[in-house]
């Protein structure tokens, strides 16, 4: 699986300085540790566990599991019997044992240049303890679910860590999602409390978050589910109450005209609650397999899946992947540009970095606001050493050429990373050559919400790099490539990417629906975790992700369900049927191309198209807004009534070679669909 020697051709290496100090300094060392991690995971992960605090030690097998649905229920258990608290390990241990209290945990950089804040580990611990006491005063207890719908502010980190300090389970909803999406997630996880903010700016755009939160709570009430309490952070408000005992100043670009609806029966002010809260709070000691958080990801059925991660395994895995993949050193300034509403922000802004006592940049804004040099300005401002972003952002900035990058020094950079989707070689080479000046290795990481952390990834000094390849498996991860019959392929091959055994950070279930967990990830190929991605392996053993093989789209690094988009479209009174497919996009990776069949007697026009786009935006969020909507009097279907999406993808891309369409019930619809293609979709 891993080659005996590192390949020498067409590869890029890190600097000699990086190799001298790296945690994994060579390919030979990587291979030695990899073999140990697979053959003796208890020894490998047990040594890492010694760096953390355990109230009680584990009693059973270090890692126990069943991946085969034919042999019983699917399960994964790590360090069963051990008790700990992840917040204690992230904050108390760093402040009191490692003496890092005065070290900066976060440099917060707001949407507006000059809007900034520095928070040390000691200050973060105090705020987390205060808010833990606030949650307890509102009746939140161990095992309760708490919904968080906030912008990228320090208080978002405070809220999530306060939850885990008292043993509550956080469910963070990306602040770009709609009220409908928030409502759906609150109800699915039966949350007892909502934490939100008045609003925030994303570039020039003002988002009235409280209005959306109120709309979501009303939708919950209409469906018979009541949330009694909503805690509101005043981020844009200049209300004097908000400044009392507030660590964070109001945003520089205040918005005095922002209308913040207030329901005194439900709404409570974050700042006033914090004012009277003690800054001491004993952690709740949790079992290793107690729930840590729920994070929703799109499902191929259209209903989002609540991915559940648990305490000990996730802590070990995110801490280790962060340390080794970014080759974290004590003096690093690390910046991940993701939003905490996604798994990348959970694992590699909050949990992984804090577990290592790292200093991170927490960024509220956009890479193009107020200009396209914003990222490199921030890199120079904070002397960022390790930088982690999405291929979408790289492709976007490539469009503006080299000058906006090269007007800044970027001399502090040592490692560059990518996340969210496969990166095309052209973008990889621009990132490596222009941003990193050919001296920074690029760690192109493959992983999912479900995996908890990196599963296929280079290591900066150990792995020779190939532009666009996810390279080799991380420690403890055993990949395989299967054909349609479920047979493992050897050597150079292409097929379904699966994993043969668990690692500590893998998800444990779909919240409230273990059967869906088993069906989605284990039923197709018993004995394997099925990723849903296609993959190829080259002659050197490098893995290359080829994209989704189910009805999912990867738009700007965010996974979207075609079924979810189609469901939103057919809710419109004019639409009888809809189908959504992806077509390549030079910046976003994939764009949404939708086909709609209207009810009899209705006409497709620009007004209807705008209404449909608005409908999808309101039901799911702006990220899911279709780029193209085409009138489709008929859709290509088999005689059994199944829509042939393969044909629709060809039409969306204007590719006339359709392959075998002999199973179509009515082949004439294909010519009609080509004639009706959206004019702007070249």
From TrEMBL:
Any GO BP: lipid metabolic process
PROSITE patterns listed in its UniProt record: AMP_BINDING
Record has Cytoplasm as a keyword: no
Catalytic activity reported: propanoate + ATP + CoA = propanoyl-CoA + AMP + diphosphate; acetate + ATP + CoA = acetyl-CoA + AMP + diphosphate
Annotated keywords: ATP-binding, Ligase, Lipid metabolism, Nucleotide-binding
Domain Acetyl-coenzyme A synthetase N-terminal: 30-89
Domain AMP-dependent synthetase/ligase: 98-509
GO terms, molecular function: acetate-CoA ligase activity; AMP binding; ATP binding; propionate-CoA ligase activity
InterPro entries: Ac_CoA_lig, ACAS_N, AMP-bd_C, AMP-bd_C_sf, AMP-binding_CS, AMP-dep_synth/lig_dom, ANL_N_sf
Catalytic class of the enzyme: ligase
SUPFAM superfamilies recorded: Acetyl-CoA synthetase-like
EC number: 6.2.1.1
Annotated AMP-binding enzyme C-terminal domain residues: 564-642
GO cellular component: cytoplasm
Pfam families xrefs: ACAS_N, AMP-binding, AMP-binding_C
PANTHER family per record: ACETYL-COENZYME A SYNTHETASE, ACETYL-COENZYME A SYNTHETASE, CYTOPLASMIC
UniProt subunit comment: Monomer. Interacts with TFEB. Interacts with the 'Thr-172' phosphorylated form of PRKAA2. Interacts with CREBBP.
Family classification: Belongs to the ATP-dependent AMP-binding enzyme family.
Protein name as catalogued: Acetyl-coenzyme A synthetase
UniProt gene name: ACSS2
């Amino acid at each position: 699986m891993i080659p005996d020697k590192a390949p020498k051709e067409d590869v890029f290496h890190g600097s000699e300085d990086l190799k001298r100090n790296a945690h994994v300094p060579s390919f030979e060392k990587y291979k030695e540790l990899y073999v140990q991690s697979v053959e003796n995971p208890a020894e490998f992960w047990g040594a890492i566990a010694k760096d953390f605090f355990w109230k009680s030690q584990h009693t059973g097998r270090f890692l126990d599991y069943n991946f085969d649905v034919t042999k019983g229920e699917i399960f994964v258990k790590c360090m069963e019997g051990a008790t700990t608290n992840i917040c204690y390990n992230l904050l108390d241990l760093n402040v009191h044992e490692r003496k890092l209290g005065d070290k900066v945990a976060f440099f917060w950089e707001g949407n507006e240049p000059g809007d900034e804040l520095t928070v040390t580990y000691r200050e973060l611990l105090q705020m987390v303890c205060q808010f833990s006491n606030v949650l307890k005063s509102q009746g939140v207890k161990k095992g309760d679910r708490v919904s968080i719908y906030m912008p990228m502010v320090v208080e978002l980190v405070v809220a999530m860590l306060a939850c885990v300090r008292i043993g509550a389970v956080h469910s963070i909803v990306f602040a770009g999602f709609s009220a409908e999406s928030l409502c759906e997630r609150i109800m699915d996880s039966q949350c007892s409390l909502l934490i939100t903010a008045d609003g925030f700016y994303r570039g020039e755009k003002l988002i009235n978050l409280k209005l959306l939160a109120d709309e979501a709570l009303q939708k919950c009430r209409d469906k018979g589910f009541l949330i009694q309490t909503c805690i509101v952070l005043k981020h844009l408000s200049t209300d004097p109450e908000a400044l009392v005992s507030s660590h964070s100043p109001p945003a520089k670009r205040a918005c005095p005209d922002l209308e913040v609806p207030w329901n005194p029966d439900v709404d409570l002010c974050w700042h006033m609650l914090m004012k009277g809260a003690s800054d001491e709070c004993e952690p709740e000691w949790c079992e290793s397999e107690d729930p840590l958080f729920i994070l929703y990801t799109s499902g191929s059925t259209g209903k989002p899946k609540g991915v559940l991660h648990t305490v000990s395994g996730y802590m070990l895995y995110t801490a280790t992947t962060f340390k080794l993949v970014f080759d974290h050193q004590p003096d690093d300034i690390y910046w991940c540009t993701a939003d905490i509403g996604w798994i990348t922000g959970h694992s590699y802004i909050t949990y992984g970095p804090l577990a290592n006592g790292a200093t991170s940049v927490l960024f509220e804004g956009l890479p193009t606001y107020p200009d396209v040099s914003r990222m490199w300005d921030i890199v120079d401002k904070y002397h960022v050493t390790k930088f982690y972003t999405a291929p979408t952002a790289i492709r976007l900035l490539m469009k503006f050429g080299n000058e906006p990058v090269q007007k800044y020094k970027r001399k502090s950079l040592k490692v560059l990373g990518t996340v969210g989707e496969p990166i095309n070689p052209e973008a990889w080479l621009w990132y490596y050559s222009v941003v990193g000046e050919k001296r920074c290795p690029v760690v192109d990481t493959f992983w999912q919400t479900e995996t908890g952390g990196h599963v296929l990834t280079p290591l900066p000094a150990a792995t020779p790099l190939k532009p666009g390849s996810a390279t080799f498996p991380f420690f403890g991860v055993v990949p395989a490539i299967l054909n349609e019959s479920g047979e493992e392929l050897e050597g150079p091959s292409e097929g379904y990417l699966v994993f043969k055994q668990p690692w500590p950070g893998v998800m444990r279930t779909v919240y409230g629906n273990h059967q869906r967990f088993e069906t989605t990830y284990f039923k197709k190929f018993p004995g394997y975790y099925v990723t849903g991605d296609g993959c190829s392996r080259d002659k050197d053993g490098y893995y290359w992700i080829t994209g989704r093989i189910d009805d999912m789209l990867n738009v700007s690094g965010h996974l979207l369900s075609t079924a979810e988009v189609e469901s939103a479209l057919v809710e419109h009174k004019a639409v009888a049927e809809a189908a959504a497919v992806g077509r390549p996009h030079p910046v976003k990776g994939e764009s949404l191309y939708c086909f709609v069949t209207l009810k009899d007697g209705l006409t497709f026009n620009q007004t209807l198209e705008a209404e449909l786009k608005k409908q999808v935006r309101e039901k799911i969020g702006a990220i899911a807004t279709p780029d193209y909507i085409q009138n489709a009097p008929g859709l290509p279907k088999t005689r059994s009534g199944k829509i042939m999406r393969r044909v629709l993808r060809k039409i969306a891309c204007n590719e006339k070679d359709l392959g075998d369409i002999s199973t179509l019930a009515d082949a004439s619809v294909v010519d009609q669909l080509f004639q009706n293609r959206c004019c702007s979709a070249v």
